[in-house]
Amino acid sequence: MKAKPIQFLDLRQSHETIRAGLTEQWDNTLDTNGFIGGASVTVFEKAFARYCGVAHAVGVANGTDALELILTGLGIGQGHEVIVPANTFIATAEAVVRVGAKPVFVDVDSATALLTADLVEAAITTRTAAVMAVHLYGQMVDMERLLEVTRPHGIAVIEDAAQAHGATWKGKRAGSWGIAAGFSFYPGKNLGALGDGGAVTTDDHALATTIRSLANHGRAEHSKYEHDIVGRNSRLDGLQAALLTVKLDELDNWTKGRRGAAALYDRLLPDSFVPITQAEEAVGVYHLYVIRSEKIPRQVVADALSDNNIGWGIHYPIPCHRQRPYQNHVIEHLPVTDTQSSQILSLPMHPHLTSDEIERVCDVLRGLE
Ligand SMILES: Cc1ncc(COP(=O)(O)O)c(C=O)c1O
Predict the structure, then answer these.
(1) Omega into 326 within 30° of 0, i.e. cis?
(2) What's the predicted TM-score (pTM) here?
(3) pLDDT surpassing 80 at residue 353
């Protein structure tokens, strides 16, 4: 008989604890017809801006659009280069290519698997317009050093905070460091909608106004019928905003659960497996708990977990610069990214993971040594 499953991500448990609040918002949306825009979007935008410690949050359709809208809002496109870590979800690079700019892929640090200021500095050219600071796995990039090296060149630092809701660097939250940040509310994210959703956060009032307009058919700020710029439709639904407001109240509790699980993994993980670590100044939110398996082939590890009914994932097995449509942007072999992409494996991680489950996962890993 197969062992009891250990889920990679358990959204059902999270939703069960707030079911009454979610259904109340569903009923309220049906009663008010507040499907697009309206009060629930404004309420969520204000709450999320406060949570991130910024002046503005603009709800958009998804995290990819958030990044693309930031680039467009900053006037970045044809003829510009944007520095992107090769170890990220494809959307980071996709947004750059969609606006007509060229992604310049850089390697990552071997301990944190994140982009570093030194790697960025080495990739700067006269065409560099921006850098995508991806807080991958829920751990923050060293934003202080990154701002330091980019400032003299007038390069915009854009945060891809899709996996990092609530993460901090020296106590200051993701989404409040760069000129703007893109968040995803894809259901599996730490703060997830019950469908697609995203947001841009920024302290820049003019940029927030431009992005709000771009995401809403280029509408003038206070006019339904005037369209000042060529925009598109990338709005956050009223229903999703209302549901996200309920979930935002729980986010810190859920983050606490994730951090507790990560601390126990750190303690119990057998020596053959190295966890991706975070810098001392960072407090992560463990969107994912990623380990590297240097000695034992990853497929052997994955098979053992599957045989024991334990969920796992790989983030990401094919780095961006090796993906077919992006290969013409390859400038060099990226040793850390290329090596780690064949070694990394994501263990079950969610706020409700129990000590018993973590012990069972680590026991299976220990059995492979
Ligand atoms: C690092 C990163 N960037 C961008 C995105 C894009 O977000 P979305 O799926 O909401 O478009 C995601 C998530 O999917 C992501 O993990």
Answers:
(1) no
(2) 0.97
(3) yes
pLDDT of residue 329: 61
Backbone torsions φ then ψ of 344, nearest 5 degrees: -80, 150
33, pLDDT greater than 70: yes
Separation of alpha carbons 101 and 125, rounded Å = 14
Mean pLDDT of 113-127: 97
Distance CA 262, CA 3 (A): 23
Taking only the tens place, the pLDDT of each residue in 46-69 is 999 999 999 999 999 999 999 999
Check if the beta carbon of residue 85 is closer than 8 Å to that of residue 207.
Answer: no
How far apart are the CA of 159 and the centre of ligand 1, in A? 12
Cβ atoms of 18 and 247 closer than 8 Å: yes
Q: Which of 45-59, 166-180, 328-342, 343-357 has the lowest mean pLDDT?
A: 328-342
Q: Which of 184, 185, 194, 244 to mutate to test the pocket of ligand 1 (most atoms within 8 A of CB)?
A: 184
Average pLDDT over residues 157-180: 98
Q: Which atom of ligand 1 is nearest to the CA of 185?
A: 10
Domains within the chain, CATH numbers bracketed: 11-246 (3.40.640.10), 250-366 (3.90.1150.10)
Q: CA separation (Å) from 91 to 14, 85, 143, 256, 344?
A: 26, 12, 21, 28, 20
Joined tokens for residue 312: 């796992």
Closest atom, ligand 1, to C-alpha of 287: 16
Average pLDDT, stretch 14-23? 97
Instruction: Of 289, 268, 269, give the one whose Cα is nearest residue 113.
Output: 289
Do residues 70 and 200 make contact, with C-beta atoms less than 8 angstroms apart? yes
Residue 186, ligand 1, Cβ within 6 A: yes
Phi/psi at 106 (nearest 5 deg)? -120, 160
Q: Both tokens of residue 233?
A: 């439709």
User: What is the b/e burial string over 254-293, where b = at least 16 CB atoms within 10 angstroms of the residue's CB?
Assistant: bbebbbebbebbeeebeebbbebebbeebbbbbbbbbbbb
Ramachandran quadrant class, 171 (left: phi over 0; alpha: psi -120 to 50; beta: rest): left
User: Mean pLDDT in the chain?
Assistant: 96
- Strand 128-134 relative to strand 81-85, pairing: parallel
Which stretches within 269-297 are classed as H helix? none
